[in-house]
Amino acid sequence: MDKLYKMRDYANQLSQGIDPTSGISFPDDSIMNISKIKIHNKEVCKLIDSIIIAASRRTTAKARKIPFFMLAEAKESFQYFEEHPVTISLICNRINECVMNGMSKVRPMAITRGLTNLGYLEEISQDGEESFKVPTGRGSMIGISKERRRNQYGNEYSVNLYDLQAQKFVITNIEEILNAAVENKKILEGLL
After folding, report:
1. Of 16, 22, 87, 93, which one has the greatest count of Cβ atoms within 10 A?
2. Averaged over 144-171, what is the pLDDT?
C-alpha cells in the first residue's frame, strides 16, 4: 500500500506541474507542464484513488491507517462556510466528515504548520503571550485574517479566521499544504 500512496502523491504533484522529487514547479516551457501530460497524470491519480478506496474497504480495524488524501469529487462537493469566516478547526471538522473508513483524519495543527511553511502564516510572540500564528501578507491576500477575542475569564487571545476564498485555497491545495507540514516535521526530527 505504501507504494500506492507514493505513486498517488507523485501523480498528483505531476498533475500540478510540480517535480515530486524536489517539490519545485517545472518551468513553463517544460514538457511536464503540457496540459495533456497534466491531465493524464490527474487521471492516473484518480485511478490510484479508486484502487486505494477498494483496498481500504477490505482492511480491518487493526490495519495501518491510510494517509489522508481528498478525492477530486470531494473537493468539488465540499460544503464551505459561506456566511462568515471560520476557524481552521471548523474547516478540519468538515473535511473529516468526508474521510474514508480507515483513513487518517486531518488535524488543524498540520494545516497551520503547512501554511506556515508555505509562507501564509508566521509565528510571533506578543505581550508576553505564548507564540501564536498570524497571517502574513500572502495569507491576508488569500483571505486569512486575525481577530482578537476574549474568553469567559476576560483574557484576550488571537484567532485566525478563514473566509470563503481562504477555505477554497485550503481545500484546493490540501495535499500540498499537508506535504509542507510533513516535510518540515522530518527536517526538525533530523535536527534533534
Report:
1. 16
2. 93
Residue 112, pLDDT > 50, answer yes
Return all residues near 180 (Cβ < 8 A) that are at least 6 apart. 113, 114, 115, 117, 118
- For residue 52, give the C-alpha cell: 486505494
> Cα-flanking dihedrals φ and ψ of residue 137, to 5°?
-60, -40
C-alpha to C-alpha distance for 157 and 131, rounded to whole angstroms: 11
Whether residue 12 is contained in a domain is answered as: yes
- Does 190 lie in the same domain as 105? yes
Domain around 14: 1-64
In angstroms, the Cα distances linking 163 to 17, 114, 130, 169 are: 27, 18, 25, 10
User: Residue 161 half-sphere exposure, CB side, CA atoms within 13 Å?
Assistant: 15
Name residue, grid cell 468526508.
Answer: 98
> Is residue 105 in some structural domain?
yes
Same domain, 55 and 97: no
Do residues 181 and 162 make contact, with C-beta atoms less than 8 angstroms apart?
A: no
pLDDT at position 191: 44
What whole-number distance in Å separates Cα of residue 22 and Cα of residue 57?
33
